[in-house]
Amino acid sequence: MKILCIGDIVSRVGRDMLFKYVDDLKYREGIDFVIANGENSNHGRGMTKSCYSEMKRAGVDAFTMGNHVWGAKDIISIMETDGDVVRPANLPEGVPGSGSIILTAKNGVKVGIINLMGQVEMTPCENPFAAAEKEVQRVRGITPVIIVDFHAEATSEKMAMGYFLDGKVSAVFGTHTHIQTADAKILANGTGYITDIGMTGPADSILGMNKKIIMNRFRTGMPQRFELAEGRGQFCGCIFTVDEETGKCTDVKRLWMEN
Q: Which of 116, 200, 222, 237 has a CA positioned 20 to 30 A from the CA of residue 152?
C-alpha cells in the first residue's frame, strides 16, 4: 500500500496546496492513505475546526501535531469528537488527546499513527524514546503498518529515533524545521526514513514567514512581529510504499512541488 505523508501545512497558502495536489497524487500514485502535520495550518499556529474541515475536504485522512498543538482552542473538541488527530505521545500525562491512533485505509488495511516530540531546543516534554517504545508495543498488537511523525528540532535526535525504531515501524518522518532534507531512504531493517519532510506553505518565505521581517531580525537583533508570507506555494511530502503483511517499507518517494 502507499501512504502519502505531508509536511507542516502553513496557513491558507498551505491549505490551498492540498487542494492543488492531493487528489492528483491519489490518482497518479495510487495513494491509499494520507497523513498531514496540521499544527501550523491556522495562520501558522494551531488547527481550528474550520481548517480541519477544509483539509479533510482536500483529502487528508489523519493529522499529526507538534509543539503548537494547543495553538487553537478548537483542537480539544476535534480530538474528542473526530478521532483522526494525534498529538505528541510524550506530552505530560493527563493532557487531552492520544499519542497514537489506528485508522482504516481505503484498501481496508489498518494504519497506526504515532506522534512524538523532540526534547532538544523544544517545549519541555517527556522522553520521546520511552514514549515510542510504549506506543509501538500497543499499536503493533493491532497492525504492523505504523507511521511515526517525529516533531523535533535536532537532526541528530531525529536520526537517532529513525535507527531506534528501524524494524519496529513502517516509516519515521521528521517535521518542525520546515526544510526538506535529501536523505529519504529505507533503513537496514525495513523502516522508511527522512529527517525532515519539509513545509507545505508559502514558497517565497523563511519557514512560512515574511522573509523581509525575518531578515531584518537577524540583521538588527531587534524583536520583530512575525507575519505570514503570501504568494505562490510549495507542497512537500513523501510517499512510503509499505508491505501490508509485514509492515516493512519497500520504497520512499520524496515530493517537492511549487506552483
A: 222
The region that residue 119 occupies, defined by phi over 0 for left and psi between -120 and 50 for alpha, beta otherwise, is alpha
What is the C-alpha separation between 109 and 129, in angstroms, rounded? Answer: 26
Q: Report d(CA 153, CA 133) in Å as an integer.
A: 20
Facing residues of 169 across strands? 166
Length of the chain in terms of residues written: 259
Q: How many CB atoms neighbour CB 215 within 10 A?
A: 12
The phi, psi pair for 250, rounded to 5°, reads -110, -15
How far, in Å, CA of 138 to CA of 37, rounded? 22
Q: Which of 68, 151, 176, 178 is catalytic?
A: 68
Radius of gyration, CA atoms only, the chain: 17
Torsion of CA 29, 99, 191, 167, to 10 degrees: -140
Give pLDDT tens digits for 48-103: 999 999 999 999 999 999 999 999 999 999 999 999 999 999 999 999 999 999 99
CA atoms within 13 A on the CB side of 53: 6
d(CA 98, CA 123): 18
Place of cell 495536489: 21
Q: Note if 178 is an active site residue.
A: no
- Which residues are paired to 142 by β-bridges? none
Sole residue written with cell 536523505: 183
Torsional class of 42: left (φ above 0), alpha (ψ -120 to 50), beta (otherwise): beta
Residue found under cell 529513525: 162
pTM score, whole prediction: 0.96
